[in-house]
UniProtKB/TrEMBL annotation:
Alphabetic keyword roster: Heme, Iron, Metal-binding, Oxidoreductase, Peroxidase, Signal
Organism from which the protein derives: Streptomyces caniferus
Pfam families, per the entry: Dyp_perox_C, Dyp_perox_N
Cofactor: heme b
Protein name (Swiss-Prot/TrEMBL): Dyp-type peroxidase
Domain called Dyp-type peroxidase N-terminal: residue spans: 71-213
Domain Dyp-type peroxidase C-terminal stretches: 223-405
Bias type Basic and acidic residues, positions: 301-317
Region (Disordered): 292-318
A GO CC term assigned to this protein in UniProt: cytosol
One Gene Ontology molecular-function label: metal ion binding
Amino acid sequence: MRCDQAGEERAPVRDEGRRGFLRCAAGLAGVAAATGLGREAAAAAADRSASGLRDGGRPLPDRVPFHGRHQAGILTPQQLFAGFVGFDVLAENREGLTELFQRLTTRCRVLAAGVKPQDEQVASERPTPDSLSITLGVGASLFDDRFGLSGHKPRHLKAMPAFPDDRLEPSRCHGDLSLQICAQHPDAIVHVLRDLARETDGLLRPRWRADAFLNPSRPSGSPRTFVGFKDGIVNPDIDSAREMNRLMWVTPPCGEPEWALGGSYQVLRLIRFHIEKWDKVPVARQEKIFGRRKASGAPLDGEHETDPPRYRDDPHGRKIPLNSHIRLANPRTERTDKSRFLRRSYNYDRGFDRAGRMDLGLVFCGYQQNPERQFATVQRRLRHEPLSEFITPIGGGYFFILPGVRDADDWFGSRLLKKD
């Protein structure tokens, strides 16, 4: 099944869009209680907040700078909680879209500076730092004939295709805009959504959302997913400008529109785990499926999480199977090196489905310079991998993350929307 927006009607009435946004934001408020964020995640949040350190010791500031060449929330050390929302734009013309982007910029700038939304303000208490970051992206559908932007679409931006192992649900895919909100407390995400609902005044309609969080690493190292393995062990070196310009940011050699320089492509995937089926698999087989030890995260030919697998010494896959997840995803050859990208994923827990099965999974989030060269190439290598028997991608989308807001006079998409 392919996910596209053909035939879907856009809400003609602003008030309906606003009510839909508010219903979406209000629904987020019950997620912690209804989906199991609960005591364990809250305790983990307290422990990790107390340390103040993320990503192997990288400090997480109380306030994440809003202005810059690139948006926050990409290279920012991962916060404990995240909300991802896909929106359809209800603005009727370029002027309305410009107004929407300017309103979003104004509020995001204020919120990132530490000012609490109106519904969260308590005059007698000192505000709690949330390490808030808000990251805005645009989808391929924004570049249709509504706003005169069709000639300015980023080169590789398109609706996310369905890959062979996907079961995409149209209601959980795509959108004109993507919003990623990350913070150290789950309620901060809800408050930000409520604030933006008031400020956008019916210019947006929520299409889908996913609330997510990090599990503790137990006892150290990278966080774990609900299949029990560590996630995000290997990423590009974000401290290397050369690496970032080669794999992450849109630069002049990419041949993209000039307005897009400094941006990045975002791939979001809502991936459900078939956890009951997975739990019946012996740990030894699980480890061969991943290519790593479940306890330590080390590759099957190593001792430590950060040990690089020695594929050249294991050409027949006797230690790390040739069809293991890590070997397919990153073969570590000169030819495949250009397909690496930055993973910034989170876990989700939506309680139980109608059949009584646990609805657990991953909100996969990847940032890159070119989704066809990077994410799609990796996805094709993973086609029908052994892990695909236990997971199903059900939603998400391709988005282009706008360049950063440079200063107090700039706003999201200014260089795009000032085009003739």
